[in-house]
Model the fold of this input.
Amino acid sequence: MKKIEYLKIAIQNKLYIHKSWIYKAFSITKPKEQQSEAYGDLIIEPWGYSAVGPNGKEKIDDAVANEPLFKFKDKVKIDSSWATNLKEPIETTIGNLLFNHIAILSTFGDKFPYVTGKVEVSKLEDFIATKLQDTPEDESKRSNQYFYVDEYTKFIDALQYLSMFSQLTTWAATPKGIVAPTGIKEFKTQLIKKYEGKLNDPVELAKFEDELKAFDDEFLKDDPANGTFLAGKTKNVARKKMFLNVGTGLRFDNKMEVNPILSSLDEGWPTDPEHFKDAMNDLRAGSFSRGAETVKGGVSAKYLLRSANNFKIEDKDCGTYLGIRRKFKPGEEQHLTGRHVVKGNKSILVENNTIASNYLNQEIVVRSPMYCKLPGDSICRICAGERLFKYPNGLGIPLTEISSILLIASLKVMHGTVLSTAKMNLKEAFT
Done:
């Protein structure tokens, strides 16, 4: 028997629902004296692996002793006989194959397309949200066009199950991920000469740091850490300070002065009094913000709840043709879904992301509570939009999301900030 043959037997018999099978198949495990020999069972031998197939116990010929039988990144060629949500034969990883069986097929069935590549749960949830419906009381009313709440609950349980195997799938350290890029000191010396006299300008400092990061990216490009545990703030803040340069950190005043620390933590703390003071303030400012600045979130929540106490949304149309004029870009469809677009003397409901995509990259007028003509503390359903209409007498609930943004911003400061530049089209920004 070959490994690929056994893998298909294991998939067809849903052995992946047993934690013991996952650990046997994807890690190095010592053989036991007594092992089950039921159909599909994997048996660890001193010389390798055997499995129980159609012809009884058989040796897995291409297995290697003292190595995992499978690795999650191993490639396999599969068709719909392996996964019913697959439309055509593809080459995929065993990790993707297992994810589809555990989290997709067991919850949504084949109405959810096969997931390949890097799995981002947030993107999957965005896709689910566009078709999510309440669980029907009558089972006959289920449709393959929608996902249902009870299915989504099973999906969450499946993700929880998958999290148990993080010790098998997570890189803890890599050869390049824990050291400075080779040649960084010489490169930085040249770079400091190039930007001499300019590094007190935040724009020039951002360019200087971008060149350092590009040098580090080249060093890390073939390392498994890159894009996995070295990504986002871990790479742009923690690794940058550790091996590239500390830069300009957090401070307790709002001055825009830039006096960067060009050395890295790997080179030691700065010894001159001014930069040493800046380094200490950078250490303390994040903790201060996390402790003292979070009160802003609570205070703003109270103000918002009080301000919305008397507001209500009425199931009517105030009849205004005014609204906010703006342009939506690709990827912002969800911000338009559930709102009403003014076309001539009509207000058109944008029911889903597909309809929203028809309004992208063009100036449109969107109905808004700012322009509602209902008297007093009332807003009409059309100006409010379908999402807010779910809270006809409880506008304070969605409004508190603003306070959550303030709270999270204060909490995130502890993890540091990234100096970067961006180009802005003023015409687009103010339309």
